[in-house]
Write a structure and sequence with these properties.
Order of helices and strands: EEHEEEEEEEEH
Distance between the termini: 26 Å
Radius of gyration: 14 Å
Number of domains: 1
Largest sheet: 6 strands, antiparallel
Strand order of the largest sheet: 1-2-10-9-8-3
Strand content: 35-45%
Helix content: 10-25%
Shape: globular
Bound molecules: zinc ion
Number of helices: 2
Number of strands: 10
Length: 146
Amino acid sequence: MALRKKGRYWYGDGPEDTQVEVQRYSKSNAYVATRFAASACTCGHRSFRLESDEEAGAARRTCTACGSVHLMGDSAEYADEAELEGHECVCGEETFELLSGVALYTDSNDVRWYYLGCRCTSCSLVGVFADWKCEGGDADAFLAAV
Ligand SMILES: [Zn+2]
Ligand SMILES: [Zn+2]
């Protein structure tokens, strides 16, 4: 299966489709995402409630299976000043699979821009729900913490 458009929105079947949407979105932002990672809870579950603050550059996910709360990427550094707001899908549900993408500085492995891709586990809508300029350092370490 692949991405399909219904009205204003895109829908997909899994992380691969979310990644395509993150790439598409990032190209229109000039900093193209080239590295990606899907979020998984320490319990193995992959659906989360999501809160973020683009101004502060912080996102927090809560596992819908075990309730574990995690600050994504380098968000712990900015969480104190963040006003995190929950995300809700257009269908009204609040549970998402998360696929992070980062754009890197030229000739570097350092994060330049962060994209937070989501796929609704209820209606399969995919989209970038948040993105921000991010000095997250080494992309491998950053993506290991999403
Ligand atoms: Zn969990
Ligand atoms: Zn939905």
